[in-house]
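Comment thread on ticket #2218

A.B. wrote:
> Attaching the input chain for the structure job we discussed in standup.
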Amino acid sequence: MPIAFNEPLSFLQRITEYMEHVYLIHKASNQPQTLERMQSVAAFAVSAVASQWERTGKPFNPLLGETYELIREDLGFRFISEQVSHHPPISAFYSEGLNQDFMFHGSIYPKLKFWGKSVEAEPRGTITLELLKHNEAYTWTNPTCCVHNVILGQLWIEQYGIVEILNHRTGDKCILHFKPCGLFGKELHRVEGYIQDKNRKKLFIIYGKWTECLWGIDPVSYESFKKHERRSDHTRKAKMDDSPEKANSDNMTDEVPVAQETVQVIPGSKLLWRINSRPPNSAQMYNFTSFTVSLNELESGMEKTLPPTDCRLRPDIRGMENGNMDLASQEKERLEEKQREARKERAKEEAEWRTRWFYPGDNPYTGTPDWLYAGDYFERNFSDCPDIY
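C.D. wrote:
> Ran it. Output below, let me know if you need it in another format.
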């Protein structure tokens, strides 16, 4: 893909954006009640995809062995990720609370499908959040992300699919429906779902938009409101002459749906999460959030503490960030060629690639294949890191 389609970040840095709303994990950890903890975990799972709103730039594919670390003492976490496989592309990550309150880890290998006008990324791999104080583990998989009009027209993004968050200690489950946009864009960005106990009794209703906010309410109040709303709708429809518009399926592009009115808040609801407002010049900066803007920052003296595989040291991304597109394009080509040559050399010597910070294993809660953190990264012994740049 030409470099003009990219944004100046590696996919490993994009994964780190899950941590923008890490306060929701701290909040979950401090909740004494199981139901309240699940509400905060559900809000965190939705917030983790919120930064993708209007982000149509493609992150750089990580090179095999590439890493990224982020330590945010102000937000109470540290994070490490590594590209552990190139075919198929798999990114593994591990994060922990600086107060030993949580561990958050997983591996992501998006399965891409090209549908002519759009590209769909189905994110395979399990995400695990452990709340250490409560001896609880939650697992889930992100929704599917679709980028429309990749060939022609204005790019736009939607997320859809069912996300199931399971509390492995209690059996409680949160089921979230990320709604596809629908024929006239009425469902664009909408998320609806509920928390149920192990006997499938609904305990709490959740609704909102992944681009905006998430609210929750008890099932009785929710049903009563919906019943009243249906009665009003029925009366209104009886008065109106119903003539639906015809959808034009011969369009060369998928028309950008207009986002409907903001979330209608049901009386008695409580706010679970609201998106951070973006900086005023965000549209000129690849629609980055304030958190994202800082991810590629290379502070003075940082090179001495980082491994030589960290994304911040990647010359093509740095070239693009500095506005030198020709250099970025040349460097991207050089790095990809270097990676191919290294793969040929390994094949010649029949040597297997060895990952540095993660190893393949089974997820301790789901039993499914996963990549597990091997530890010791923050001891900072980087002597045997590969030369990938």
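A.B. wrote:
> Thanks. Noting for the ticket: The two ends are 20 Å apart (CA to CA).
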